[in-house]
Amino acid sequence: MAAPKKGRGPSGGQGRPGRSLVLILIAMVALTGGMFLSGHTTPRLGIDLAGGTSITLEAQNQPGKPNAINPTNMNTAVGIIERRVNGLGVSEAEVQTQGDRNIIVNIPKGTDSKQAQKQVGTTAQLYFRPVLTVQASGPEQPAPSDSATPKPGESGTPDDKDQGADKDKGEEATGSEATPSASATTQGRAVTGALKKDPTPSAPGSDEPKPSDSPEASPSVDPATAKLQEEFAKLDCTDPEQRTEAGQDAKPTDSIVACGSNVPGSYEKYVLGPAEVSGSDVDDAKAAIDQQTGQWIVSMEFTSAGAKKFQTITSRLSQQQPPMNQFAIVLDGEVVSAPSVRTALSKNAQISGSFDQQSAEELGNILSYGALPLTFEEVSVTTVTAALGSEQLKGGLIAGAIGLALVVLYLVVYYRGLSFIALLSLLVSGVLTYTIMSLLGPAIGFALNLPAVCGAIVAIGITADSFIVYFERVRDEIREGRTLRPAIERAWPRARRTILVSDFVSFLAAAVLFIVTVGKVQGFAFTLGLTTLLDVVVVFFFTKPLMTLMGRTKFFSKGGPWSGLDPKRLGAQPPLRRSRRVNAPTEPKEA
User: Fold this and answer.
1) Which of 60, 138, 211, 360 has the most crowded Cβ, counting Cβ within 10 A?
2) H or E stretch including 130?
3) Is the pLDDT assigned to residue 435 strictly greater than 90?
4) Which of these, 312, 319, 313, lies nearest to 342 by C-alpha position?
5) Cα 559 vs. chain centroid, distance in angstroms?
6) Is 254 within 8 Å of 273 (Cβ atoms)?
7) How many CB atoms lie within 10 A of CB 315?
């Protein structure tokens, strides 16, 4: 006779509930330990709770490029802006798209919001242009003569030394030591680096103005040069509108007029030659302290193609006299720096001079991260103070505490002893949620904002609902006349199915909400999805095993009034008993 097959053990780990409890305890200890070891013992707070600045940028249509605003360019812009802001030392900034043409930049408190705002809103069309003329800017001044302004497309020759030598005889322009003349000023910065050759410029006083160089002796001015001279004469860089419009919408091959400022409140205007090096030719740039002088400098490293271009321009400029030995770093039509060139350079170079830490880091950041593929307009800038953020956080915590208190009160009144299991499960869920949120901050940049707090409050009800489903299934089994231990195991399959379906619907709603929304609403969706997943983990690995262990204790197994499983209070039926079937007597058959 064949031996009977062994049936499956009770589902839900009835025989070894302690193993599941140990497993989830290990997970809690590991997460808590990781949280303390990482130094992030609290969740990272969003702008609306911690305070900070929120900047909204809107992409603008560009002439001749009707399809420029597309997901690819928007995502590229997000990456560049994020790298720029992080380059300022802001590791917790949040940059994301909103809709099809907006970018939201959230910068937490403790950051120089003005500097960050400047970095974020700058399109960064970056070019290196040779300086042809530079002059202190003010109200409209006489245009420079043709001899002082090379024609567009020309960068100047050694014969152009007379430009800045008239009033600088006997003085050599050497970066911060240079003494600018009244009609030609410099940025007070110099470029040094890998020496290719060391041309020796002629002494500033060796080339006296020749009669042929005078305005009266100059040849006729072509229309393009005349227009450039007229624009230069009319340009007043102290006017913000003129300063913004100067150099805009110009082609890289055009000579332009532009404004710059080396000292706050003081402006210079420039005539600049065609761009010879672009921002894409810069491979890396960063601020550093010169070990010899102790001054801040900006180190640049060019790509292979950029190094050849840079060597060409610096080799020529190093032979010129001020200001034509300068090249201007032009960002969105504005001169951010115009260092002088001492020697011919190639792959590596250093910009030195009148830098402090902030200006050096700002220039290095701009050079390093390049140009945005789109032009953006700053739509709004919202600043949330830390005081307002703390008030909102306090309000959210109070709302959560009230919700939790109501849930606890309901569980204690209605489920009595079973509420102990529910409260422990809620505690485990809270610990897991808190530690994971704390670790997700530095890991993926998750920030707890006010909608996320709302999601966590909603999750309290979702988690409690899972316990209630299971408790009610157990009570149904007791009402049918079964004892507690069989009731716990028979109720689990039906409760498990209901819990999984309910949590799947909640998670699906959270996932859809996260995908189709942007900004702070995503915080609500993310928190709701996370807590829904944790609800499944807690119910399967903690609530069910703990219920199995509690069913073996006298307090619950006897079904006392305070256990929440009193058969009398539940209206239980008498135990089901099987009765033998009595066959009816058969009548004798007739012959």
Assistant:
1) 360
2) strand 126-136
3) yes
4) 319
5) 56
6) no
7) 17
Give the pLDDT band (50/70/90) at residue 153.
very low
Residues contacting residue 422 through CB under 8 Å, at least 6 positions apart: 411, 415, 464, 467, 471, 543
Phi-psi region of 48 (alpha: psi -120 to 50; beta: other; left: phi over 0): alpha
**Residue 424 exposed, middle or buried by CB count within 10 Å (0-12, 13-18, 19+):** middle
Cα 156 from Cα 199, distance rounded (Å): 16
Whole-number pLDDT of residue 47: 75
For residue 144, give the nearest of 265, 52, 230, 240 by alpha carbon: 230
**Taking 70 as the threshold, does the pLDDT of residue 298 lie above it?**
yes
Segment 398-403 shows an average pLDDT of: 86
Task: Determine the Cα–Cα distance for residues 383 and 125; give it in Å rounded to an integer.
Answer: 28
- Residue 232 CA to residue 234 CA, distance in Å, equals 6
- Locate tokens 């109720």: which residue? 491
Amino acid identity for residue 41 in this structure: T
Spatial neighbors of 443 by CB under 8 A, at least 6 apart, are none
> Sorting pLDDT into bands at 50, 70 and 90, what band is 154?
very low
- Helix, coil or strand: residue 131: strand
- Specify which residues 382 forms β-bridges with: 54
ω into 209 cis (within 30 of 0) = no
Considering all CA atoms of the chain, what is the largest pairwise distance in Å, rounded to the nearest integer?
158
Among the listed residues 372, 448, 461, 373, the one whose alpha carbon sits nearest the alpha carbon of residue 411:
461
Mention every residue, 6+ apart, whose C-beta is less than 8 A from residue 112.
88, 358
Q: In what order do the strands lie in the sheet with 94-98?
A: 94-98, 102-108, 52-60, 375-384
Per DSSP bridges, beta strands 189-193 and 340-341 are parallel
Residue 531 above 60 pLDDT? yes
Alpha helices in 416-553 (DSSP H): 418-444, 450-479, 484-516, 521-538, 544-550
Intra-chain end-to-end CA distance of the chain, in Å: 44
Kindly state the tokens that stand for 138: 């003010």
Which residue, 137, 120, 379, is CA-closest to 258?
Answer: 137
**pTM score, two decimals?**
0.55
* The pLDDT of residue 261: 81
Q: Residue 94: which H helix or E strand, with range? A: strand 94-98
CB atoms within 10 A of CB 211: 7
Tokens 């808190």 map to which residue? 434
Pairwise pLDDT comparison (208 vs 493), residue with the higher score: 493
Q: What is the pLDDT of residue 12?
A: 43
3-class secondary structure per residue, 8-54:
CCCCCCCCCHHHHHHHHHHHHHHHHHHHHHHCCCCCCECHHHHCEEE
Q: What is the mean pLDDT of residues 114-128?
A: 67
To the nearest whole percent, how much of the chain has pLDDT over 70? Answer: 72
Q: Any residues with CB less than 8 A from the CB of 220 and at least 6 apart, and which?
A: none
Count, residues in the chain: 591
